[in-house]
């Protein structure tokens, strides 16, 4: 089974590999567009980005496409970090899952609301480049208890579980 992750981000690819390795799926990261804004600002937009990435993998000829997208969601409590995933098969089956959410600190939220992508805010906040390819904001704000790969791995488990349930 040839599976593509709609991203070359190592954290996203790692999250898929750790889940599907035991079932023998070959995983490859590919560049496909999300067709949403660089910083998705709602669950709906984040979910659409994940779906578009998964669908883009299928268009490249893979058996299964997995799209993973991080975003933010405004609530009355503040701005939450969110994540969504979609698994699409070449036969057209589509599955969705969302994962953990965590409230972002006000100083980070202000910059994101002002139009700066969370990854850029986090680079400045932590003085580290490419944090979204490493532990991510969730890793920073959970003191390393949950990394970006961990957070997406949970979503991938839900996607693969739904896929296998239907078989």
TrEMBL record:
Keyword Nucleotide-binding attributed? yes
Alphabetized InterPro entries for the sequence: ITPase-like_fam (IPR029001), NTPase/PRRC1 (IPR026533), YjjX_NTPase (IPR050299)
State the source organism's domain of life.
Bacteria
Q: Which cofactor does it need?
A: Mg(2+); Mn(2+)
**Keyword Hydrolase listed:** yes
| Gene3D superfamilies assigned to the protein according to its UniProt record, in alphabetical order | 3.90.950.10
Q: What class of enzyme is it?
A: hydrolase
State the name under which the record lists this protein: inosine/xanthosine triphosphatase
Q: Which organism is it from?
A: Pseudalkalibacillus berkeleyi
């Amino acid at each position: 089974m040839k599976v593509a992750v709609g991203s070359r981000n190592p954290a996203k690819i790692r999250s898929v590999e750790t889940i599907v390795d035991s079932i023998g799926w070959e995983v490859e990261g590919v560049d496909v567009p999300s067709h949403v804004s660089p910083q998705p600002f709602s669950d709906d937009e984040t979910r659409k980005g994940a779906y578009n990435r998964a669908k883009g993998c299928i268009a490249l000829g893979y058996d299964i496409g997995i799209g993973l997208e991080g975003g933010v969601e405004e609530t009355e409590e503040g701005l939450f970090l969110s994540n969504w995933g979609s698994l699409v098969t070449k036969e057209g089956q589509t599955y969705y899952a969302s994962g953990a959410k965590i409230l972002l600190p006000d100083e980070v939220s202000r910059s994101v609301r002002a139009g700066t992508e969370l990854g850029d805010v986090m680079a400045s906040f932590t003085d580290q480049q490419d944090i979204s390819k490493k532990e991510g904001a969730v890793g920073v704000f959970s003191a390393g208890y949950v990394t970006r790969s961990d957070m997406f791995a949970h979503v991938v488990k839900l996607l693969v579980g739904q896929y296998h349930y239907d078989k």
